[in-house]
Design a protein that fits this description.
- This protein is an alpha+beta fold.
- It folds into 2 domains: 75 residues, Beta-grasp domain (Ubiquitin-like (UB roll), Roll); 68 residues, Orthogonal Bundle (DNA polymerase, domain 1), CATH 1.10.150.120.
- Helices cover 33% and strands 15% of the residues.
- Strands 2-1-5-3-4 form a 5-stranded mixed β-sheet, with helices on one face.
- A hairpin with a 2-residue loop joins strand 1 and strand 2.
- Helix 2 packs antiparallel against helix 5 and helix 3 packs across helix 5.
- Its EC number is 1.2.99.2.
- InterPro entries: 2Fe-2S-bd, 2Fe-2S-bd_dom_sf, 2Fe-2S_ferredoxin-like_sf, 2Fe-2S_ferredoxin-type, 2Fe2S_fd_BS, Beta-grasp_dom_sf, Diverse_Oxidoreductases.
- This is Carbon monoxide dehydrogenase, small subunit CoxS.
Length: 155
């Protein structure tokens, strides 16, 4: 079985991994980082979104071996060491941008990428930027509010 080494949430990780193992399987099953959710297995819903070298990716659509030598950040890795929530997590909480919570980890990770790398100057731009992340519960309005609030905090 091939071995991969990568950094996950700031920690060096080396594990034996079957060639067909997806990144989401590796994170959830091998590293027990279950905050990254599996929704559709076809990169349609966004529940599995993580950051790979600082960019949002859908981890169900990548093999774990494609992350070798790279840095992965999951929802478990964005809060401060003292437990203080990331500004995006805090905004989702403040603005009631979640209901059942299934989409929330992927939505938060996508929203962080949106604020850091793309235009989020209007509700329309935020909605466009979050396209590809599906939520069955919220109707998206409070998610949009949360992203706008966090964008100000992340400045």
């Amino acid at each position: 079985m091939p071995t991969i080494s990568l950094t996950v949430n700031g920690r060096a990780v080396t594990r034996d991994v079957e060639p067909q193992t997806t990144l989401v399987q590796f994170l959830r099953e091998t590293l027990q980082l279950t905050g990254t959710h599996v929704g559709c297995d076809t990169a349609q819903c966004g529940a599995c979104t993580v950051h790979l070298d600082g960019e949002a990716v859908k981890s169900c659509n990548l093999l774990a071996h494609q992350a070798a030598g790279r840095a992965v950040t999951t929802i478990e890795g964005i809060a401060a060491a003292d437990g203080t929530l990331h500004p995006m997590q805090q905004a989702f909480n403040d603005c009631h941008g979640l209901q059942c919570g299934f989409c929330t980890p992927g939505m938060v990770m996508s929203a962080i990428d949106l604020v850091q790398h793309h235009d989020c100057s209007s509700d329309e731009k935020i909605r466009e930027g979050l396209e590809g992340n599906l939520c069955r519960c919220t109707g998206y309005q409070n998610i949009v509010k949360a992203v706008a609030q966090a964008a100000k905090a992340m400045g």
